[in-house]
Amino acid sequence: MSLDAVLAEIDNSLDDAMERLKGLLRIQSISTDPAFKADCDKAADWLVDDLKSIGFDAEKRVTTGHPMVVAHDPNAPEGTPHVLFYGHYDVQPVDPLDLWDVPPFEPTIESRPEGDVIRARGSSDDKGQLMTFIEACRAFKKIHGHMPVKITFFMEGEEESGSPSLVPFMEANKDELTCDIALICDTGMVSPGVPSIASQLRGMLKDEFTLTGPALDLHSGHYGGPALNPLREISKLIATFHDDTGRVAVEGFYDGVEDVPSQQLAAWKNCGFDEKEYLEFAGMSKAHGEEGYSALEQQWARPTLEINGLWGGYNGAGTKTVIPADAHCKITCRLVGDMDPDKLRAALRKHVEDRLPQDAMITWNQDLEGSKASVMNIDRPEFVAAKSALSDEWEREAVFVGMGGSIPIAGFFKSIWGMESLLMGFANDDDRIHSPNEKYNVQSFHKGIRSWARMLDKLAQN
Amino acid sequence: MSLDAVLAEIDNSLDDAMERLKGLLRIQSISTDPAFKADCDKAADWLVDDLKSIGFDAEKRVTTGHPMVVAHDPNAPEGTPHVLFYGHYDVQPVDPLDLWDVPPFEPTIESRPEGDVIRARGSSDDKGQLMTFIEACRAFKKIHGHMPVKITFFMEGEEESGSPSLVPFMEANKDELTCDIALICDTGMVSPGVPSIASQLRGMLKDEFTLTGPALDLHSGHYGGPALNPLREISKLIATFHDDTGRVAVEGFYDGVEDVPSQQLAAWKNCGFDEKEYLEFAGMSKAHGEEGYSALEQQWARPTLEINGLWGGYNGAGTKTVIPADAHCKITCRLVGDMDPDKLRAALRKHVEDRLPQDAMITWNQDLEGSKASVMNIDRPEFVAAKSALSDEWEREAVFVGMGGSIPIAGFFKSIWGMESLLMGFANDDDRIHSPNEKYNVQSFHKGIRSWARMLDKLAQN
């Protein structure tokens, strides 16, 4: 099969592809707001129609929430790898609306010195990105009449609202949808023009506790002194979570953590990550994590224990002379390597309970989950293919990057379907996803389509 | 002047006095709620009319808030001490209403094994208590036609809502209202049946700060590790406020603090304070303040640094993977002895700022005040008279007690009018002031009236 003809078709039909993307972007598929339920349905229908138009057997599948879109290729070549493509058609809310320079659902092309961008809610997260894959498929179908490998589509409309229907749907449709690997296009490039493939994602442990001291809220005049103050005690507990070098002081916390191999570290050094810019954006003059590790390692390859919420007592204006009965704390840990969330939860709880003062009691939230880190096997042929395809397209060696975040879908593919994920995407740090004035670079869209075409071509050669 | 006849008159007219008290209690003078503005006015009118009925020149004085009640005695004896009586006619809100066993503004007498109580909002705080003084005056006027000493009344209707009109009114009426000493009836007895006079009140320093770290709320996946977490940093700061023995670790904090003289300590040991009951009520198995001091000393005679509010990040249900830009903390210190609130504020702020990590910033609330502790000169003749009067009435030696709280009016009398305060009251710990089902013991009312009659008689002998 000729790749050149496919790439030429992509170039020649870019305007049409942009018009199709605009069509999808005009649908107000805000999944978290029930007022937009019909719009989410409409976006699913749009995808079903579009996939049908290029010869896929596409269906909208009803859930208790927003529908899934599933598509198979009736004309798939035999004896080729079978890949699943995942994306999501829902978008974040648009408020505050007055901070948008253009209406969020009227996609607009803007010319910029560094190249055109398309501005609209969902342009980068994830409609623009998922359409890079569909457009690559369209070009193959048009030029060759069929795809180079076997493809199944699986797209959801609840990614921005906690995916309540996802796990039950995955469990119910395991046999139909399990493939060799999942391709996910919902991530970005480590820096502009540097094609990036995720080699590791941090896992996550969520926990939350209430420290109760007095039997009731007390008056600080009548009881200040003799009463245990839960706000002081929770602060003392939190202060024990880290040592003076920024290392987490919970016993056993680092079980399963290994330093990044020097070869990978060397590759990261050349991945184009701008530490100074990264820190400056956050208002930091230095990296505050574990001493001895760069900001990049701290973000991608080191575990963390962060307090995400802390509260108790009186938070209004002025003063209330209260010693509150309790204090509350929300914690998330980011996990790496082989860290075990269950063991870690037990270690964290032991750490807290071992340090409880007399007359204090801890209640744990029992509803919070944990997930292991994902470490990709980058020696798999799909990763080799991806690196080669991206390097060809972007004329710059693609890099395997860590990701500080935890992408739940990759964990579910692994835990429910036993399937690895390959994440590559073309977003940029300045795309303003989840914020007003979201945009996607037209270059990301165009070269993204071409990247997927090259990738599918390489996969067929495996 | 015969005291016995006055006491007999008090005994004989107790039923009438109770009916008058019920009349005042029926007025819904909730000062904090604008819906009850007319009721507050009505309570002031009620007091003016009642004081006029016993021969005082009483007036309602308009303020920008609720009115003051001021009364002078046109028939005051010459050459006697001149005392100011202070009380407040406003009451706390009554919610939650469904927790009341009786309607809060329909005063009800309840028989109990230990004696009758009158149940209503304000029965103890402060209508029942202020009426003990007025009824004592009534009995004197009836039996002798005039009071034994010169008396001025000053009653406010904003005590339960921050007294916004108090200081301007006091400044504007200093010459008219300054007396030898203020008598305040708004406190309780250290234990049932033990008449108590305040010999010291703790002062108060209020402060509040915001610790800012990141330039904006950050994602804990993208920035967890490298970013300074304000919730962790504020916890570390708070953990430095005390040492392991419960002593405040702020340099200079104890300047001006002295141990309680052994004689006073011995007196406190016999004051009837039940440490076990006091701690058990709060759910404490021990006193958590400074090691080496009893719960009573910790409450009355030791300074404290308490966190009254602490908050930052996400406090809702579930998890938000945020590293917030800032964290907030409200602090009050209780002061004793000669501690200087201004110096202490500077010391506290230095303590915090000296410990600030790189990339963190502190903003202090500049609107919060401080007040010194009050230490009464119990050798003054009025205190000697009070002790003698109370001991006679209650047939139990009256005790000088500390008070853990800070009673602002006593501070204002001192700072604005240069006038000492004598606080004696007849409330009990189980009166449920500020809570549903507030009550006042009929014994407190009856013997309270008799106590004031004895006190006024003693003052006249000075």
Describe the structure.
Chains A, B: Keywords: Hydrolase, Metal-binding, Protease. The structure is a homodimer of 462-residue chains. With 462 residues, chain A is an alpha+beta fold. Chain A contains 14 helices and 19 strands. Chain A has helices spanning 3-12, 14-25, 37-53, 127-144, 166-172, 174-177, 230-239, 262-269, 275-281, 295-300, 341-354, 381-394, 408-417, 442-461, and strands at 57-61, 68-72, 82-88, 108-110, 117-119, 150-156, 181-184, 196-201, 203-212, 218-219, 304-313, 322-323, 326-335, 361-364, 370-371, 374-375, 399-403, 420-425, 439-441. In chain A, the strands form four sheets. In chain A, strands 1, 2, 3, 6, 7, 8, 16, 17 and 18 form a nine-stranded mixed beta sheet that branches. In chain A, strands 9, 11, 13, 14 and 15 form a five-stranded antiparallel beta sheet that branches. In chain A, strand 4 and strand 5 (117-119) form a beta hairpin. Chain A is globular and about 80 Å long. The two termini of chain A are 14 Å apart. In chain A, 53% of the residues are buried. Strand 11 (304-313) of chain A pairs antiparallel with strand 11 of chain B, so a sheet runs across the interface.
